[in-house]
Amino acid sequence: MTASLSELSTYLGEKLIGRVNDADIAYGELTVHVEPRDLVEVMTFLRDDARCQFISIIDVCGADYPSRAKRFDVVYHLLSPKQNVRIRVKVQADEETMVPSITDVYPGADWFERETYDLYGVLFSGHPDLRRLLTDYGFEGHPLRKDFPLTGFVEVRYDDEAKRVIYEPVELKQEFRNFDFLSPWEGTDYVLPGDEKAKTN
After folding, report:
1. Which residue ranges does the record assign to the NADH:ubiquinone oxidoreductase 30kDa subunit domain (predicted)?
2. Which band of pLDDT confidence, cut at 50, 70 and 90, is reported for residue 167?
3. Could you give the 3-state DSSP secondary structure of residue 57?
4. Chain centroid to CA 132: how far?
């Protein structure tokens, strides 16, 4: 398998000169790194070329690396059923970089790109309907960014009296603020509820 992936990597390097920045093989999959401006051309080649035939898009997702200038990786997973091979295409972007939408090449990328926009804030130029997919209307922020607060900003609940969903600021109870993150079964000075018999004097 590694030999065929290595051959495919060499083939792509020859056919897409100047379009593929880097290619590496890890965990039985070939990863190709591409600039945003070349993304649509590379994806079209991967779909249409007789040797590749990556006709099936499996996923589009994001990864956040806040310490980098281009903090986001947009990762595309493709499958070639005829060749029985998968490939991963990566594009780096920051909060202002517009990544070209590939919905004209792979119509199935529509909701995947919307999800990546919703959860990471990656902008896709040319997308037919780029709006949030998983979070609610009026939601602020992008929950899978590493700098997004763990508790969020508001909590949502259904109010029976008002007969609607209401938003309230997040309120952490004091006992959760002072939570002992060490193992609760070792080294605590207090008895946990239900653990009274385990403690001996």
Report:
1. 32-153
2. confident
3. strand
4. 14
Per-residue confidence (pLDDT) for residue 32, from 0 to 100: 95
Cα–Cα distance, 181 to 108 (Å, whole number): 43
Report the distance separating Cα 154 and Cα 145, nearest Å.
17
pLDDT of residue 77: 97
Domains in the chain with CATH codes: 2-143 (3.30.460.80)
Structure tokens at 200: 């001996």
Residue 110 CA, chain-centre distance (Å), reads 15
The whole-angstrom separation of Cα 123 and Cα 128 is 12
Partners of 57 in the β-ladder: 78
Q: Residue 176 above 90 pLDDT? A: no
Residue 155 is predicted with a pLDDT of: 79
The answer to pTM > 0.85 is: no
At position 140, the amino acid (one-letter code) is E
